[in-house]
Amino acid sequence: MSEQIEQARPRERVVVIGAGMVAHRFVEAMRSRDDAGRFDITVLGDEPRPPYDRVALTSYFTGRDPEDLNLGGAELWADPRVTLAKRTEVTDVDRNAKVVTTAKGVRHPYDHLVLATGSYAAVPPVKGNDLQGCFVYRTIDDVAALRGYVEELRAAHPERPVRGAVVGGGLLGLEAAGALQALGAESTVIEFAPRLMPLQVDDGGGQELRRLIDNLGVEVRTGTATQRVLAKRGRRVTGMEFADGEKIDVDVVVFATGVRPRDELARAAGLEVGERGGVVVDDRCRTSDESIHAIGEVACIQGRVWGLVAPGYTMAEIAADALLGGESSFPGADTSTKLKLLGVDVASFGDAFATTPGALEVVYSDSVTGSYKKLVVSDDAQTLLGGILVGDASAYAGLRPLVGRRLGADPSSFIVPAGAGEGAASSLELPDDAAVCSCNNVSAGQIRSAVDDGASNLADVKSCTKAGTSCGSCLPIVKKLFESHQEKAGIAVDRSLCEHIPMPRSELFNAIKVAGLATFSEIMERFGTGRGCDICKPTIANILASLGGGHILAGEQSTLQDSNDHVLANLQKDGTYSVVPRIPGGEITPDGLLVIAQVAKDFGLYTKITGGQRIDLFGARIDQLPAIWKRLVDAGFESGHAYGKSLRTVKSCVGQSWCRYGVQDSVRMAIDLELRYRGLRSPHKLKLGVSGCARECAEARGKDAGVIATENGWNLYVGGNGGATPKHAQLLAQDLSDAELITAIDRFFMYYVSTAERLQRTAPWLEELDGGIERLREVIFDDALGLCDDLDAMMTHHVGAYADEWREVLEDPEKLAQFTGFVNDATDADPDLLYVVEREQVRPATADDRARAAAGELDLVDSERRPVMVAGSTLEVRA
Amino acid sequence: MSRPSTSTESTSNVSVSNAPDLEGWTRACDADRLVPERAVAALAPDGAQVAVVRTADGRLFAVGHHDPYALANVIARGVVGTRTVADETASEKTGQEATGQERVVDVIQSPLYKQAFDLATGEDVEDRSVSLGTWAVRERDGVIELGERTSEAGHPERTTR
Ligand SMILES: Cc1cc2nc3c(=O)[nH]c(=O)nc-3n(C[C@H](O)[C@H](O)[C@H](O)COP(=O)(O)OP(=O)(O)OC[C@H]3O[C@@H](n4cnc5c(N)ncnc54)[C@H](O)[C@@H]3O)c2cc1C
Q: Could you tell me which pathway this protein works in (chain A) (predicted)?
């Protein structure tokens, strides 16, 4: 019966104005909770793209693809109940008719309207603020325009740096200064208040922040009012003038002086707005019109407008809940933030300015290491109220959830000295209701229940709780909670490699290297128990090979290899192997092709071009491998290591030599790289790509290391892969020379080889690396760990010691002896190997094929490609 | 399609006779050809393909070369090692009862889908109804010899081919 009612009731129309971060969260909440399918949702946004992660806007300048910022998978926007209209500005809300009208005159009737129009960037009323070269910093279009302008200036004035100024020394201003730096422009930050980030940090913190930012080459002027922006001739910015009359030369000005709610539609429709703007809503996000909700930065809730995403997300959940008949209401929010601005950590949380009566401050300041830390505690020094961290904010994740709780230890022990603070915070047991992730409102208890419900790794916890998926500042604490709860729940956090080796691969690698051990037996005696298995044996063989342990089939090592490495070929489902000669960079001569073709033909091998620009020959019996390789090696080919956890291929486009767009010789570079890294054994396979221009035809960003040519050299991207969970590689460095590129890849590979887990590809390795890509940059370019010499030496050793594995096998009778079908019958080939001829080549016969052959319905051939008799009937093979 | 020859350099130094002697034993290979912890494939007196292994401590085993899951003759190319198993299943072959305790067994692992088979019984350690079958094997006068089949193979309900 209820079904009939449900059907009879027409679906309710929800119209959302604005397609920003909070609108996205609202749609997601509606779709995950509206099980009955009551609502159709239409989202109208004026930007030319789906909602994206505005918080991460600055990553646009560090090479992130704008599409990577998109929020909501394609599924959400493909949902038949959801309609997203881009480039659609709403210009009118008719509350009586319950219709909104777009700039193009399209009318959208609604039953429920949700205002999620966010804010616009405020431009102060200084003269000249509309000259060419003035920008704001709010949308992808804004940052794209800024980038375009700076690049244009750079091209027009190659002889001098582009000079930029940012008006506003708050969070946004420092982000913008970072963007200018990333674009290679000089930057000056101009702040009216006497210190930077006046809303987040106190004077002490502001001083330290200024010192750190000065050191980065950004000029800071505090206590300075901007009078006007100047243009000498025409409409292009050439300078600016301050209230004291001083003038400076600048080419670009970014205004980052705050935001104002986009409440103009609401005003025009007669909805109540706050004194300082924002659509007034009650605790359940309802405006003065009960069919209209307002959420996010446009809403004025409990008397104020929130310029942060977390309270906006909470409002999105509340509005969705209200439409679905729930009663939840706004619990209040806090302004806690942790940011990395220009690479400097800044965190501010709770009652940062000690406004609570009787509040005490504990301050630790160290200008030598560049850190300022302040905790605000209650008058009895027992309860944490808030704090400010500048320079080193590692304690933030642990401290923030403790706000309002008893510290249980001397407050100073949380901040002095560095390192101990983390320890003190992490040794505390967070109560279940402590909020851990403020962006997504996830408590410690929710993390724990995720573990109880079977989340077995950090990625699972993140995807089922959403913790750490927005700004990521809470990840260290989420990880700790996850691990300690797993341990407690008796789910041993077993990091051992296998039952024989009680440590993960990363530790084993280091242990073997430091102890200088070179054989499996010694390693097992020292670090393991028993005789090993198919996990630890190949892993140890792989580590020994990475450390330059000689031929992989020499002596005891031979017994450790898995089937592929043991015969230097790839095992296929019927027990035969495939053969892949190396074709560096995918470049091959017609004569080379003829050799491969003739081998394939003579041995009746199924032939296919691989995704890595080489040729795979399938269906070789183990005893045929040496004869096949003899012919290939004689013709100048060498092992392609398709069978190893090692470098596979370097894919390239044709590049400058032929392509009219190419700006560098990508094929030459691909060949150089392939010849340098060939044979390098690693925790998982490694692939590279080299593209000759930004069109990226080699799909290099889908590789572990992707190289893309620029006018000035090469951009290097790392940590990409295809496969089941595709990942785009992230930009590591720009405009490298040939030599710089090779050094960077050398170090990246060797750092990965030295520290990754078994079968961990570079993408998840980078994701788990504390500090991510920035940390990697520090390790590789600034030698932050003092490892560079060692990494370089490892690679030099690898390059010097390389020898073709197959050639060595062919020259060594002892190794050759392993390639036998049966040790006591050299003439007998496995009679169970049967093939069907299909599209003029062979493929293994299935059980079904065999049955059909026995019934006389299908012809089969054997491993010599001769027609076979099955169950008494003679079969003929098609020519 | 032309036909390549079957004999290659790799097998030329191997004795070709595998006819059983009067007592039913047949030569597999010279003892020093058998590297500890790495199997070789050989033909048993009954014509079956078997995997012959010597473990690090010198014991000899012979199990079927045919992978009952993948339906391919590949077992000899698997990694040899040990596995600690909960002794929850009774073994029909040895008449052994389930003890519920842990024990360490010698195993060879399929190179295709990685099931571990007990070298002593030929059984899949996770499903003891599936088995490779076992053969008698011995070393005499520096030669490894294969004898008669000592247990039958057991097939799984599902295969992968
Ligand atoms: C560089 C930068 C860094 C930031 N860093 C942080 C941070 O570290 N932490 C944090 O919490 N917050 C940060 N913020 C703030 C955060 O991005 C905002 O709080 C959040 O985006 C607000 O979401 P919203 O959906 O309310 O508004 P928005 O994301 O601005 O979305 C509103 C959308 O509505 C559209 N729109 C407006 N009017 C109309 C109309 N009439 N018709 C159609 N469409 C319309 C707008 O174009 C926009 O696309 C940062 C912001 C910036 C710019």
A: Nitrogen metabolism; nitrate reduction (assimilation)
pLDDT of residue B80: 96
pLDDT at A346 over 60: yes
Rounded distance from Cα A174 to ligand 1 centre (Å): 18
Touching check for B47 and chain A: CB below 8 Å?
Answer: no
What pLDDT is recorded for position A344? Answer: 86
Mutate to test the interface with B, among A822, A825, A830, A862 (most CBs of B within 10 A): A822
Domains of chain A, residue spans: 2-120+261-323, 134-257, 338-427, 429-491, 505-566, 568-643, 645-804, 835-877
Task: Report the CATH fold assignment for A429-491.
Answer: Arc Repressor Mutant, subunit A (1.10.10)
Q: Quote the pTM value.
A: 0.64
pLDDT at A359 exceeding the cut of 60:
yes
Across the interface, whether the CB atoms of A823 and B14 are under 8 A apart is answered yes
Query: Chain B contacts of A560, Cβ < 8 Å?
Result: 79
* Domain annotation covers residue B13: no
Ligand 1 pocket member A310 (CB < 6 A): yes
Which architecture does CATH list for A338-427? 2-Layer Sandwich (3.30)
Cβ-defined contact of A623 to B10 (cutoff 8 Å): yes
pLDDT-above-90 percentage for chain A? 70
Mean confidence (pLDDT) of chain B: 84
CA of A20 to the centre of ligand 1 (A): 6
Q: Which CATH architecture has domain A645-804?
A: 2-Layer Sandwich (3.30)
**A32: burial class by Cβ within 10 Å (0-12, 13-18, 19+)?**
exposed
Cβ neighbours of B37 in A, within 8 Å: 531, 559
Structural domain including B48 reads 23-151
CATH of the structural domain A134-257, one choice from 3.50.50.60, 3.40.50.1820, 3.40.50.300, 3.30.70.580: 3.50.50.60
Q: Contact, A479 vs A493, CB < 8 A?
A: no
Whole-angstrom distance, CA of residue B16 vs CA of residue A156: 80
CA distance A348 to A770: 21
Which CATH number belongs to the domain containing residue B50 in this structure?
Answer: 2.102.10.10
CATH tag for A2-120+261-323 (out of 3.60.20.10, 1.10.150.170, 3.50.50.60, 3.40.50.1370): 3.50.50.60
For the record, the structure tokens of A370 come out as: 């560049």
A458 within 8 A of A465, measured Cβ to Cβ: no
Cα–Cα distance for residue pair B54/B61, rounded to 1 Å: 6
Cβ separation of A830 and B161 shorter than 8 Å? Answer: no
Provide the sign of the torsion angle of the four alpha carbons B107, B110, B111, B115, taken in this order: negative
The b-or-e profile of A684-698 (16+ CB within 10 A means b, else e) is bbbbbbbbbbeebbb
Q: What is the mean pLDDT of chain A?
A: 90
CA distance B105 to B108: 10
What's the number of domains chain B is made of?
1
Is residue A189 in contact with ligand 1, taking CB distance under 6 Å?
A: no
Q: What is the pLDDT of residues B127-160, one digit of tens each?
A: 999 999 999 999 999 999 999 999 999 998 877 7
A671 contact partners, CB below 8 Å, separation of at least 6: A584, A585, A587, A650, A652
Residue B120 pLDDT > 90, yes or no? yes
pLDDT per position as a tens digit, A19-42: 999 999 999 999 999 988 899 999
A626/B8 CB distance under 8 A: yes
Q: How far is the CA of A119 from the centre of ligand 1 (A)?
A: 6
User: Does CATH number 3.90.480.10 belong to domain A568-643?
Assistant: yes
For chain B, percent of residues with pLDDT exceeding 70: 78
Domains A2-120+261-323 and A134-257 share a fold: yes
Give tens-digit pLDDT for A441-464. 788 888 888 888 888 777 788 888
Helix (H) or strand (E) holding A339, with range, is strand A337-341
